[in-house]
Amino acid sequence: MAKTIAQASDNTAGFPVGEGGSGTPDGMRLRSLLPLVGPDFGAVGGSSQLRAIVGALLTYGLIISVLMVVTCGATWAISSSNGSWHAASKAKTGLFVALGGAALTGAALAWANWLLDVGAQL
To answer: What is the pLDDT, as a whole number, of residue 44?
Structure first.
């Protein structure tokens, strides 16, 4: 039989003392706490509009990255053929930065869609 706080002096939390005398509630598991704690996804409306805005912004980012790849690639080729090694080095750096930006932008679109899908399932 479980003791109450008045019967057990070592229980300071106010829970019935179980058979082990630990002062924790009997039968209380993490699963029983999960419905009580969690984000309120109903408070953030318009996830379809957010998805459209994020998609449009990331599309612009991809277009700019592709234009930078073309521009930096052409600049690298022209400056290398003319013997301007400093300009070729800067164009090569710009090309790699644009490729990295395109990769990150594409990954960001996939990540944002995944987060919106996961948020809808919670």
So the answer is: 58
Up-side HSE of residue 22: CA atoms within 13 Å toward CB? 7
- Which tens digits make up the pLDDT trace of 5-62? 444 444 455 555 555 555 555 455 555 555 555 545 555 567 677 777 877 888 898 8
Torsions phi, psi of 3, nearest 5?
-95, 155
Write out the two tokens for 34. 């999960």
**Structural domains counted in the chain:** 1
Q: Looking at this protein, which amino acid is placed at residue 48?
A: S
- CA-based nearest residue to 26, from 36, 11, 40: 11
If we measure between CA atoms, which residue out of 73, 122, 80 comes closest to residue 95?
Answer: 73
> Is residue 19, in this structure, part of any structural domain at all?
no
Query: Contact, 34 vs 78, CB < 8 A?
Result: no
How many other C-beta atoms lie within 10 A of the C-beta of residue 69? 18
Q: What mean pLDDT value characterizes the chain?
A: 74
Q: Residue 108: its pLDDT value, please?
A: 81
50 domain-assigned? yes
User: Is residue 20 in some structural domain?
Assistant: no
